[in-house]
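Input record (one chain):
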Amino acid sequence: MISGLVAVGAAVVVIVVVVVVVVVVVTSAAAMLVLLIIVAIRGGEDRRVLIISSNKTAFAIEISLDKQNSISKNNQRRKRVANE
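The corresponding structure, as predicted from the sequence alone:
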């Protein structure tokens, strides 16, 4: 009887932990997606997002935004030089 209750309790704990992990992962992915959409809509020269996260994906997104920003600045500089 008691071992059955312990098994049920352990199963409940495992289910709760799995649900919490899934919720955290989905929430962080949704937050990053929202940030990317905001960046895409805003545009502009100073397009940079500070993503506070230990996630490697977030770090990769920030690096790619930096590269994109420097490329657009170089393109604008070239256009200015060509116009002068």
